[in-house]
């Protein structure tokens, strides 16, 4: 029906509960009344049987049956007992059915209507029959003399109308219990309906189904990872993209998921966060977290994750290219100055000194190139070191490649080497920039039988033991901005290759030393 379709799920549940409870209580009431009627019938049978047996054993009845006119003695006696016991009739009769007593005196000496055969043989007759007073429940028992001979019969009965009257007297209590049960059940259904209405915001089944379908479709189709956490810190939802970005199995239940430490730390804080970089496996993710509220109540937090791994790699390469471009521009400007100097010296007739000046500059540049290329056979890493050397010169920093450096093969991915060396050199350059002379960064890259060793030292301010212990944590930086990712990425590469990354608070030159050991395949 259209009206029912517009009902909220709370109203539908309330109506359904009321109907079910009403049916159950009605059935219980009918059953109770039926049991009460049956109990009233049994009680009437037991009552008339007890009264009949008591009268049959009375000496008054036994002696009166031996007289010529038993009615004179038995009629008053029977009526007094009938009134006292609340029965409807007591009939004392001869074995031939002749009545000696009856509530209606006009029927005395008339024949008794009903079964007496079992009583004549010493038994008891119990039956529901229609007699002179209408339908009744009656019993007939024998009266025996001193010798045991049957000298008469006693019949005691209660009319059906009387039994029904007694039953009707019990109906108010039954009806009261029924009304109370219905009222309590209705109140419980109403309270439950109100609670359900608050929790479902008055939505109907069709609206909830449609909302769930849209909700599920949207959550699993968005290109961002999404995690929903309740007020107790339990994950209640994670979409497909979230599982992929965090490297979580698709078939694992939400309650059994183990999140990367940095993501778990962010969720545990349960505080708003905007564009916070976090590491998850080999991915760099940007996290945004918001506290969710409804009607002034805090429901939990929602965390969204975007994959910035490739973007950050490209940004790092772009920064390197930009830095190299700036260094080349500065070198071009410097070279132009030197060229003008050489030309001026030639014009002044000092050709020998001009040649020596130009040759010295070329030798310095070629010496650095030969040193780097001779020590590092990996072309990408050699190019990186030359570019960083140009950047260092632009900043007034001396970048030294340790003479012990040697890297002949490509036993590690170039990208991982560039990540480690590039981030370590960048951090060292930042540490010494603006410091008093000497400003030097020393790089050692050497390959052994079992591992590749990368060590970068500087002449900067160094680190305290506490800073050295926390250096590879996300957010640590020499600039103290809480956004550092360089050393965290280095740690990530080291962990991916089952290697180590450590920081020494002070080098022989006064600065810090960062050492990374990367086991190589086949070692």
UniProtKB/TrEMBL annotation:
Pfam families documented for this protein: HATPase_c, PAS, sCache_3_2
Stored CDD domains: PAS
Domain Histidine kinase intervals: 302-522
Keyword Hydrolase annotated: no
The keyword Cell membrane is annotated on this UniProt entry: yes
GO molecular function (one): ATP binding
Residues in PAS domain copies: 211-248
Protein name: histidine kinase
